[in-house]
Amino acid sequence: MTMDHEQYDVVVVGGGVNGTGIAMDAAGRGLKVLLCEMNDLASATSSNSSKLIHGGLRYLEHYEFRLVQKALAERESLLRNSPHIMWPMRFRLPHRPHLRPAWMIRTGLFLYDHLAKREILPGSRSIRFDESGPLKPNITKGFEYSDGWVDDARLVILTAKKAQQAGAKILTRTKCVHAVRGGTDWKVTLRSTVSEEENTISAKAIVNASGPWVSKLFSETLSMPAPKMIRMVKGSHIVVPRLNIDQEAYILQNEDERIVFVIPYEDHFSLIGTTDVEYEGDPKKAKISPEETNYLLDIVNAHFTRQLKPSDVVWAYSGVRPLMDGEEENAQKASRDYSFEVDQEGDKAPLISVFGGKITTYRKLAEAATDKLCQFFPEASGHWTKTASLPGGDFDSHDGLNATLRREFPWMPKEILNRYIRTYGTASRDILNKSSSVEDLGRHFVGTLYEKEVQYLIENEWAMTSEDILWRRTKQGLYASQDNVKALDTYLAENISLFVTGGHLRNSA
């Protein structure tokens, strides 16, 4: 498939949450959009978060009231638009009076409850712990408040799907290797990292949304100095067997003033994180260190009755957050807000670059960036994403959808159906249609992953490797042995050519 000389209004570089959000918004306003991502969608920062839709309670201590208010206001919009991959979650904060006095926590929670309007999420309250809970017996008092949980990688993939449905072309495994500014447009050279094929296209504007690579893109691809640098901070997480049987998450205070979350994860596990460590080097090579693992375990062991060892860690991951570089001495105080830089030489084609950001405010960031774009495209339409459901999100409740799909597919095992609902929502039907038994789902790979779902992910969600499927799209890697991974690799090697041409998925247009 050749794209030589195709013309676009906008080329978005970067397939993380910000890039796909901008591509979705811009395409929905009538612009002709191409998004390129050199790896898989959500392959870096956007799949390695704490997986929270939250205002950021601890940011109040750093007086980031505007950021917290903006994030709090976004929570409920996101929860409404994507109920399959996001849902409300209660957080329990054990009180440790030598770290923060009760009045300070109550004040912070009061602000958290009232800085933005709440309709879905209940407010905070004081609670007491007893011996029936998972915490140590000396911890008896605490607080409880609301935030939200999100499957971060699926958020990115479904945002890309929504962009595609609005007309955007999504090209994964495609690197922007060179861009030259002309009089009214950019000449952009794209290279497939699968086939090494190169194509040159033109665009009236470029959006640099490459996350940790945002500053590097200037020197390597655009041949110009970066207007500002980012501060790379590594955040690491560990996954262990489930620590508490209830559905609440825990937010733990530590002596260094940091907080660590313990979040129910994928039914049988607890997700623990995060760290804040200054990072230099290739963001793709970020790995958790033994010191970070021990740091997280020590905090959990100081609070929970059950004591964890490094051998209890089932999985660990690290992501590099591209934060705006300020004067803060330590990483935890660096702002999670975002900014834009617009570069335009006279009447020449513009370049918009995104610096910073957090997953909760991705839609607002995309809206603001697209507003800047639309200054150059007066024919574009207005705001539309605040009430736009992501694919599969057109339902009211998990329980209601579960009951409906159970009537339609009574043969489906409960565990498989539950995961489909929180992965695909109403789009579960696209996989299950024409199936009347588990056998119709085809070959079983691991956990709840069957051949029919694998084929769907290849054809509809740009999946090409076992890592794409097991980790970013299904989380079934938590149950996979080396033999399971090898079997899936073999299957993909034998079948991927049916769905890929010229290094691109056939459905990318």
Descriptive report:
The chain has helices at residues 17-28, 65-81, 102-114, 152-165, 214-222, 290-301, 362-374, 398-408, 414-424, 428-432, 451-460, 466-473, 482-495, and strands at residues 7-13, 33-36, 52-53, 86-94, 125-128, 141-150, 169-171, 174-181, 186-192, 198-208, 230-241, 249-253, 259-265, 269-273, 277-278, 315-324, 338-343, 351-356, 444-446, 449-450, 500-501, 504-505. The protein has 509 residues and is an alpha+beta fold. The protein is globular, with a radius of gyration of 23 Å. Strands 3, 4, 5, 6, 11, 12, 13, 14, 15 and 16 form a 10-stranded mixed beta sheet that branches. Strands 1, 2, 7, 8, 9, 10, 17 and 18 form an 8-stranded mixed beta sheet that branches. It folds into 3 domains: 7-45 and 154-229 and 336-387, FAD/NAD(P)-binding domain (3-Layer(bba) Sandwich); 81-148 and 231-323, D-Amino Acid Oxidase, subunit A, domain 2 (D-Amino Acid Oxidase, Chain A, domain 2), CATH 3.30.9.10; 398-508, Alpha-glycerophosphate oxidase, cap domain (Helicase, Ruva Protein, domain 3, Orthogonal Bundle). Helix 1 crosses helix 7. Residues 502-507 have low confidence and may be disordered. The relative contact order is 0.16. The N and C termini lie close together (10 Å).
